[in-house]
Amino acid sequence: MRMTLLLLGVALAGCSRATPPLPAAADAPIQPSQLRAITCHFTQTSSTQVTPAIKREKAGEPMDWTFSSLDPAANKATAIGNLGAVDVAYWLDGGMVPQAVFLETSVGGNRMMTTVYINKSLRGMSAIHSRHFSIGTGEAVASQYAGACDGKW
């Protein structure tokens, strides 16, 4: 009987394996570096034309942007809007409130910047999109959009 128990114990010991780690809980916070895409809907807009006099213009139409192929190591991403897709510069900034910052340079050399303030749920993240450009006559136009974004990982 002792021998049988000993053999059974040896046999069971040979079958035992290390327990694999448990998967992360579904509600575990996602790290900003794990983001793969961010989709934004901008609803509040304003525009100002800077001529010798400052002229405020009517608010523009709402717009949607998706930022995909996020690569914080290479500082690159792709911005997809109603006119197509374009490569943009991308920075992921830590800090008290992590931020995803996207900078587009148009063919004409104008700059458009979007900042997304990342929250732990990756839902309803606040965002601001700013455009600073010239209309070709040397007059500047500044426009701002504010909205919310959802992240995908």
Structure description:
The chain has one domain: Porin, CATH 2.40.160. It contains 1 helix and 9 strands. It has 153 residues and is mostly beta strands. The protein has an 8-stranded antiparallel β-barrel.
Q: Provide the spatial order of strands within the biggest beta sheet.
A: 1-3-4-5-6-7-8-9
The CATH topology comes to: Porin
Strand composition percent = over 45%
State the distance separating the first and last CA atoms.
Answer: 57 Å
By CATH reckoning, the class would read: Mainly Beta
> How would you describe the shape?
globular
| Reported CATH architecture | Beta Barrel
List the helices and strands and how they pair.
Blueprint: H1 2-15, E1 37-50, E2 54-57, E3 63-71, E4 76-81, E5 84-93, E6 99-105, E7 111-117, E8 125-134, E9 140-152
Summarize this structure briefly:
With 153 residues, the protein is mostly beta strands.
Task: Supply the key terms.
153 residues, Porin, eight-stranded antiparallel beta barrel, 9 strands, 52% strand
